[in-house]
Amino acid sequence: xxxxxxxxxxxxxxxxxxxxxxxxxxxxxxxxxxxxxxxxxxxxxxxxxxxxxxxxxxxxxxxxxxxxxxxxxxxxxxxxxxxxxxxxxxxxxxxxxxxxxxxxxxxxxxxxxxxxxxxxxxxxxxxxxxxxxxxxxxxxxxxxxxxxxxxxxxxxxxxxxxxxxxxxxxxxxxxxxxxxxxxxxxxxxxxxxxxxxxxxxxxxxxxxxxxxxxxxxxxxxxxxxxxxxxxxxxxxxxxxxxxxxxxxxxxxxxxxxxxxxxxxxxxxxxxxxxxxxxxxxxxxxxxxxxxxxxxxxxxxxxxxxxxx
Length: 308
Hints:
The protein has two domains: 6-93, Tyrosine recombinase, N-terminal domain (DNA polymerase, domain 1); 119-301, hpI Integrase, Chain A. By secondary structure, the protein is mostly helical. A three-stranded antiparallel β-sheet has the order 1-2-3. The radius of gyration is 23 Å and the shape is elongated. The protein is built from 14 helices and three strands. α6 (141-155) crosses α11 (253-266). Helix content is 55%, strand content 4%.
């Protein structure tokens, strides 16, 4: 199938990955942004049709993103993956005779080691929510905050996953919570006794005061003070607020997830197990945590080895 221009082809591609592939909305939005930026650069060079795209134009675009706009290597790698997928689809559709993205080299990817908290720092963060934070006559939101933080650290949840957990997804007798992750992929995430106790207390003493009779809660587990499911931005705000109270800097929701994975590996957990717990489709994504652990081993070696 031939498309009249690249913008038409882009729209058809986004429809394809939404309808035929069933990708998550966040993934579709990311593809759309990457391709929009590509087409802006191609338009500047008067390249408007799929057949007119040359490999050098794609290289120029990626180089500009890194050198002129200062984007990180990880972002460039993602953009490259988007471009490859788009033009592979165009070729499969018969919209182009040759795929200009075939010979694009994967840029050397420098992975920044994720920020993690030590077990002691994590303990301080989890102990931050306390009764004195609440106002008289208001629901005890500190119980909600504590339940949320315990859940995120115990089960390695992403910020986007927190608000999607339903009340029926919490199974205290089994010690697990059902999580709907990226690409609508389900996983059962175990949790320890502290997280279970925090959630049970929240369900008894706080959530009933937050719930409204109009059903706005959608039967989700963690609610905002308005009775609606907690949103991703609110998760960030809650984590940042309690990190500040605990005297911790540069802490965000993913820090809890990074710490969850690293602490498991430091305790001897198998990498494949951690991959399953995190909901990673590719174990290569999980392997960065082994680098974190190795960096700590190097620190110990330098400190204690006579020739360190």
